[in-house]
User: Fold these one by one.
Assistant:
Number 1:
Amino acid sequence: MKILLKALVLGCFLLVTTSSYSQSEGNNPKPINLLSKNIQGSAVIEYSFPIETNFTVEILDKNQKIVKSFEEVALIEATKKYDLSFLLKGKYNLKFKSGNTILHEQQIEKL
């Protein structure tokens, strides 16, 4: 059973890298097809899971310190919008985690 997580990272961000994962093992669903786009001021995360899943979205600076994190419960389908205008210009890591398991990680840059 495939689990789909699509994220559109919006807000003058440029996608630097993208990763893709396949179906998870056990209770840790892994996302596939994570996307980023360049629009204004916020991040929109769209996802659909066949089951409820708890996960955390973390934004880390170049020193790997957490700048902001968001706790989420992924229902069957949902769209979330976050204001990321507080971020300064530079590179950041965006991580989707379930417990200590990293579901997805990508590097973004605020222009």
Number 2:
Amino acid sequence: MTLRLSILVLFTIQLSVGHLVAQTDVKIKKSKFRLESKSDEAYKAAWKNIKAAEKYFDLGPGTYMEARDFYLKAEGYNENRCSPQL
């Protein structure tokens, strides 16, 4: 019985820690986002998508997929970016 209880406790701790590690604060600084080689219209559209994504992200786990969609739209603004893990 104690072995089962120990396994259950360890499993519960692992799930709790995994959940805490997985959550991050996705914030993008406007000054680091703008590219000089792109038009103002493209920048404004991309930044608008970033702001919409942040609003959805701040609402919580139920809206992360909507936030992801907006982040992916904004991602197209910079073709030299590192690939995000979304």
Number 3:
Amino acid sequence: MPHTDSTRWTVLLPVKPFALGKSRLAIWAGASRAEWARAFYLDTLDAIFHTPLVQQVIVVTADSEAHVLAARAGAKVADDTPVCGLNAAVHRGATHAASSPTGGPVAVLTADLPALRPEELMQVLTDARHHPRAFLTDHTGSGTTILTASTPRMLLPRFEGASRTQHAVTGAHELIIANVPGARLDVDTPMDLGAALSLGVGPYSTALRSNMRELPLPAGSVRVTPGRGATVAPAVPVPPWIPPVLAAELFSKVALTCY
């Protein structure tokens, strides 16, 4: 069911343990990659809390520091032990959200969006309210940074790998929004970080970069134009044989596979 203009959202923010995150930054940042993972998380969390349409935030993590930081910011925390991957973390967060008395729609954000702005998230959630399930493609055109659903049981997460295609074929609507570059720019590589810094990041990543000026970013950083947003790949056809009701049924049977 489409949501109203006054709909307020629950946001799930799965967070991998900082020591395990951002392995592709290691070639540039070395051991400090954990510090970058922490900064990305805090900037993403900060942007979420400054978005008026958000009524509660549930951080899903097995990291004790992320847990403390979430509670300090005012977020609820769902335990992600053992660590079983992003989709399992979303499933755990959705179970937590389903038991919440607040109700309402739910959105999942990746915790590596340091350039995300509250007004961008507002636009994404405003557009998503028209669809039972929806998602926002990342800046590469193959991944997903935001997944939304009318209820927690409807999420059916298919993050990791070619998640854009996976979310589309399970019936989620692809949101085509031009002016949300920070919402699309998940940072996995040094080039991604260069693009995010050029676009403008939150206070935590800004402070960390100021302390690491001796580490030059590589040339050829990803280009993201603030006025137009990242390039959007052509829409993926959605098979008519997977209606939203079936998606919810499938989600309820997703097994948690740890690896």
Number 4:
Amino acid sequence: MPDAVLMPAPVTTRKDFSAIVRRRLSSRSRVGLSSMLDLGWRAWRLTSSVADSFSASQNCEPSRRRLVQYPVVWPAPGVAICVFTSGKEALMRSFDFKQLDVFSDQLLLGNPLAVVLGAEGLTDEQMAAFARWTNLSETTFLLKPTDPRADYRVRIFTTLEELPFAGHPTLGSCHAWLESGGVARGEEIIQECGIGLVRIRREGSGLAFTAPPLLRSGAVDPELIEQIRLGMKLGAGEILDARWVDNGPGWVALRLADRASVLRLQPDYAQLSGLKLGVVAPWDPVVDGDEAQFEVRAFVPGDGMAEDPVTGSLNAGIARWFLEEGLAPARYVVSQGTALGRKGRVSIQRLGDDIWVGGSTVTCIEGRVSL
């Protein structure tokens, strides 16, 4: 009896076909397989498109005979490839998958991101469902670009909605794309996303993106500041300033006096529902050290998690505010995630008209996911 490879349907690329065949065959059946894979792939494409059911039970496990719906392909002597489908299984495909830690060079101390590569063919509903399942602040799906200037396209989902842009998904998605063999057309990598094209560059051992323009900026209404003050349990006068720094997600940023004030915040999230709030204050070199110049926290009540560990888009927005008003040097480092036991570090640098937001990324998990 030949080895039976239980091929999930549909398999649409030769890469997937070859990987599954090699992974699932015994060492005996792998002998001489390479020269037969092209023939097997062509035969598979032909036969798997046939809608008529075909009984191949004599070549497959008896316990799965009732699931056989498609023909058998023999890509090598002694090898039978059968497609098994039952209900929703017939619609599932397998994708390369990575889970990363962004804005940290140490595992488990940054902001996690799930990335599905080569996500063509997935529906909006499938992407949203998988993002809910990962239960991370963001999950991204990498696609071929529609803009000829871009190297790749990314769609970014939270557990509740799709975002036009977010910072740590930008760096993490680019890291995953490069690690999977992506080659940029120029010195910079060009990402296509909901807000348009985002430039990314290599920065030491990490990556950095150009801070996008603000969609909304300027002062915050006094009534909203008062609502935020009460929700943050801050005393009168503790908020030194507040600005809209919205580059897509909808951030409002508050400036406090010192790092300790930021770290002791315990918001009443019920009063802040629907808002996306960033809080920033300077480090005191004598008290806090010189590893960073600012401490930041990001609160997202009602968005699946109350506080985001490390936030690229918020820091990009704050950088535009602080650099335009002379509140920060042209180059500085932000600490974020301290209150959550993380050690996120975000680098900010102004070069000419550009503001670059960067950090390290490490890969924690690699594999495949069926959707």
